[in-house]
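Consider what follows.

. . .
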Amino acid sequence: MLKDGEEIEEILITPLSKFLGEVGRAVAETQLALDRNSIKTQIEIDEEKALSEYDIQAAWYHIPEIDLELKISLTVKLKEERDSKNRIRSYKPVLNASPLNASYNSLYSYDVQGSSCIKAKIVSIPAASRLKE
């Protein structure tokens, strides 16, 4: 059985969309954890008689944006597109990313000078307001 935080396997090559999607999900999970902590704190303040007599509000933390700069190796592979009879109809290009680390460099004898740099920004936007009728 794996222990918390134990690495299952090192991922060397994965589609770029999956790679960036995991980063986005990690940011969303972090924001949710911050929000839940603020709610829990406010409930504790409200339920404790001594604290509830004062106008104390829990602090809310917000991740306004995340800037990413990834040094990676990019490759394009063709994925088969099949029809209902399982015949190959076309090939779809899939952009794969490989994070540059010692394992990847050693395994593939990769020259880091040929790496790509992807810059991305994840920015929070205000939630749509709910109008009450």
